[in-house]
Amino acid sequence: MRSSQAGLHRQEEAVRTASIEHATTGNRLAERLEWNGLRYTRIWSQHAPTRGRAGGGFDMPAEAIMRLARSATSIHIRLRGHPAESLTLKPGVVWPLQQLQRGLPFDQTLHGVDVTPPIARVTWHGPSHLVERMWNKGIAQHKKGATLHDVRLYLAAGNPGGLHLVAGHHCEFGSADEAAPVEVWLGEAP
Questions:
Q1: Mean pLDDT for the chain overall
Q2: Concatenated DSSP letters for 51-115?
Q3: What is the largest CA-CA distance in the chain?
């Protein structure tokens, strides 16, 4: 219990000390976030809230995400304006980053299998109700559009309360019927 309380305290402290800056990445302006000793670059956000669930998309081209994933050591997923509602890749877990390096969504393992609830729990650090949003079932049935170039970042297939990020189609985190201001960040050493 003490270690989980200490982890929450560290996460709350990191949220208070986070700073956001803008930097040019290629031809686009990228948002950067200093958090937990890493420099994060935002790769996904809800660009057009008025479009509802279809308002999310990549903040940079697939090639730039693939390059950034090569030097990244972390993925941070959060709801804009609610930094405590967030998940971070556990230290030492690299398969989601390896998927991004290959130009693939991180909604299946390197072996092409579903992110089961036990896999989600050993992969992501954050509140349990958010970790539960990361599992999927039957992802292999969704081969069409299964690359970053095809605009898919994450699809929690079979999990109606899961994370669904398909540019121009889905930007949901917790309800398949409601849009969410999801942000995905890749972190690297400063």
A1: 85
A2: GGGGGEEESS-HHHHHHHHHH--EEEEEETTEEEEEEEEPTT--HHHHHHHTT--SSB-TTS-B-
A3: 47
The percent helix, strand, coil of the chain (3-state, each to 5) is: 30, 35, 35
Rounded CA Rg of the chain: 15
- End-to-end Cα distance, the chain: 32
pLDDT digits (tens, 9 = 90+) for 26-53: 445 679 988 889 999 999 999 888 888 8
Nearest in space to 44 (alpha carbons), one of 105, 110, 124: 105
Inter-residue contact 156 to 136 (CB < 8 Å): yes
Region at 85 (left for phi over 0; alpha for psi -120 to 50; beta for the rest): beta
What contacts 150, CB < 8 A, 6 or more positions away? 144
Answer whether 56's CB lies under 8 Å from 165's CB: yes
Strand 56-58 relative to strand 74-79, pairing:
unpaired
C-alpha 125/C-alpha 76 separation (Å) is: 10
- Count of CB atoms within 10 A of residue 2's CB? 6
The rounded distance, in Å, linking the Cα atoms of 147 and 73 is: 21
pTM of this prediction? 0.84
